[in-house]
Amino acid sequence: MNEEKPSRFFYGYIIVLACFLIQGIGVGTFTAFGVFFKPLLAEFGWSRATISGASSLAFLIMGFLGILAGKLNDKFGPRIVMAVTGVFYGSGHLLLSQLSSIWQLYLFFGLLVGIGLSSIDVIPLTTTVRWFVRRRGMMTGLVKVGTGAGQLVMPLLAGIFIIDYGWHHAYILIGIIALMFVIGSGQLLRRDPGQMGQVPDGGRKIATGQPDTSEGGVSLKEALRSGQFWIVCIISFLAGYSMLTIRVHVVPHATDIGIEPIKAAGVLSTIGGVSMVGRLSIGIAIDRIGNRKSMIICFMILIASSLWLLVAREMWMLYLFAILYGIAYGGFFTVISPIVAELFGIGSHGVLFGIIYFSLTIGAAIGPVLAGHIFDIVRSYQLVFLILVGVGIAGLFLTLFLKPAIRKA
Questions:
Q1: Helices 349-378 and 315-344 sit at what angle, rounded to 10 degrees?
Q2: Domains delineated in the chain
Q3: pLDDT bucket at 51, cuts 50 / 70 / 90
Q4: pLDDT tens for each residue of 192-240
Q5: Averaged over 93-103, what is the pLDDT?
Q6: d(Cα 278, Cα 137) in Å, to the nearest integer?
Q7: Which of 22, 102, 271, 367 is deepest in the core (most CB within 10 A)?
């Protein structure tokens, strides 16, 4: 059997760039929904809870359908999945320009955008782990930096569009950007290096189009019977519970203890900015010390930052919290996909990661709501933060028991 002469350029770098753009535009555009809050309130007079409900619905649909997106990616590859979900994602934003009633908000944003979001994390991260082995952590970290970059750029861009053209036309422009970049970048993706006559990390490969026999791992059925799989699901749930609870409630907590609103918002911005450092640094750590140790580090930082938040009463203390927490926040989102690949292989990575990520979204949906109920009862966030310490300890304890599942020959 003849071998192709290996390309001088490794296509995996195009994969990373495309995944970076999908993450940046996809997550950034979703985050920009908050910029439209005040214009929608001013025009329609809906309550904040009503508008927020559409975002929560989109988040839950994203997590649930992420399982299907992962399954389809394992079977058909990323380009078809990204094209279909990209149409939903961009169309949902375009239709929001015609918004006139609350049911339309839940249909266009909650349902259509939620369907589009289902591929934004699963497809890029699953594709990245198939293209890289030795540098899997660092490349996953680079892809996840796109999330932070998008969260910085897209809300700012949406704000400029609203000021210059009004919120109706702003949604048209946002929708066009989403269609172009999500679908366009998705068409650059290839399921695995075998489709380009290459192997993970670059090198020689048998003729293009032949099956990638390097794939292995447990099947979906085997994973569902594995205690290790459910441990990872619980860990993901705990991480999601903690991360979203803080993102929703840290600003109200800061204002409750006398911090000016603009400075309190800076705490949240600091978490987002530092999370990019966390994504990349934990990604590098994954390649050097392994996934499990990297996740242990994330939980240790999470526990330390939650303990610190219990006593933080001044601005500098809150910013120190944000720096610590931002590293753990970014690190968790980076380490989950590689650890799934290490424990269960990459043959069914898409659907397995989809289920695990859905566990994260359930925790993310429950955490902020429960924290709000606790505050309404005791009029303090201290118990909320104590629970977060317990969540971190539980996650750390479970991580110590992770080990690779038995793989198929």
A1: 150
A2: 12-196 (1.20.1250.20), 220-399 (1.20.1250.20)
A3: confident
A4: 888 888 898 876 554 444 434 345 677 888 888 888 999 999 999 999 8
A5: 94
A6: 12
A7: 22
The candidate with the shortest Cα–Cα distance to 151, out of 60, 270, 16, is 270
Q: Which one-letter amino acid corresponds to residue 81?
A: V
Residue 182 CA to residue 311 CA, distance in Å, equals 43
- 118, 355 Cβ separation under 8 angstroms: no
Tell me what the mean pLDDT of segment 363-383 comes to.
86
| N- to C-terminal Cα separation, the chain | 24
According to the model, what pLDDT value does residue 115 have? 95
Model's pTM, two decimal places?
A: 0.78
What's the rounded Cα separation, in Å, for the pair 139 and 59? 25
- The C-alpha R_g of the chain, in whole angstroms, comes to 21
Q: Interhelix angle for 78-96 vs 12-31, to 10°?
A: 20
SS3 of the chain = CCECCCCCCCCHHHHHHHHHHHHHHHHHHHHHHHHHHHHHHHHHCCCHHHHHHHHHHHHHHHHHHHHHHHHHHHHHCHHHHHHHHHHHHHHHHHHHCCCCCHHHHHHHHHHHHHHHHCCCCHHHHHHHHHHCCCCHHHHHHHHHHHHHHHHHHHHHHHHHHHHHHCHHHHHHHHHHHHHHHHHHHHCCCCCCHHHHCCCCCCCCCECCCCCCCCCCECCHHHHHCCHHHHHHHHHHHHHHHHHHHHHHHHHHHHHHCCCCHHHHHHHHHHHHHHHHHHHHHHHHHHHHHCHHHHHHHHHHHHHHHHHHHHHCCCHHHHHHHHHHHHHHHHHHHHHHHHHHHHHHECCCHHHHHHHHHHHHHHHHHHHHHHHHHHHHHHCCCHHHHHHHHHHHHHHHHHHCCCCCCCCCC
DSSP bridge pairs for 25: none
Distance from the Cα of residue 162 to its chain's centroid: 26
User: What are the two backbone dihedrals, phi and then psi, of residue 198, each rounded to the nearest 5 degrees?
Assistant: -130, 175
